[in-house]
Amino acid sequence: MLNACREVLRTVNTLVSSVDPGQFDRATPCADWDVRALLNHLVWKNLVWAGLAEGTPRTDATADHLGEDHIEAFRTASEAALAAFGRPGMLRTSFGVLERRQSRGDGRDTG
């Protein structure tokens, strides 16, 4: 399971790395999100999963999780999620329901 997740994150990292900041304001198939908001969402979800696995749920859905370096933000968040779920026994742990709030990356969320 972790190997499959690692491969997916590696592939997504390649896509994230191919995005130039000059493309951040471009539209995505999700009408409410531009490229920057989508990237912020990808980082946020990795942080959410890491926090859930570590027992420290995140409450900063509307924050800017990309900072100045979207590639490093995604890499760091991905590594945090993999490390958290890579701890012994984590894949057999039940976590309950995850709140459904999605950050757009611009100070608003999709609630």
Automatic annotation (TrEMBL):
Highest taxon listed in the record's lineage: Bacteria
Gene Ontology molecular function terms on file: metal ion binding
One Pfam family hit: MDMPI_N
Classification via SUPFAM superfamilies: DinB/YfiT-like putative metalloenzymes
First and last residue of the signal peptide: none
Domain Mycothiol-dependent maleylpyruvate isomerase metal-binding: 6-85
Alphabetical list of InterPro entries matching this protein: DinB/YfiT-like, Maleyloyr_isom, MDMPI_metal-binding
NCBIfam families listed in its UniProt record: maleylpyruvate isomerase family mycothiol-dependent enzyme
Protein name: Uncharacterized protein (TIGR03083 family)
Record organism: Streptomyces candidus
Organism ancestry: Bacteria, Bacillati, Actinomycetota, Actinomycetes, Kitasatosporales
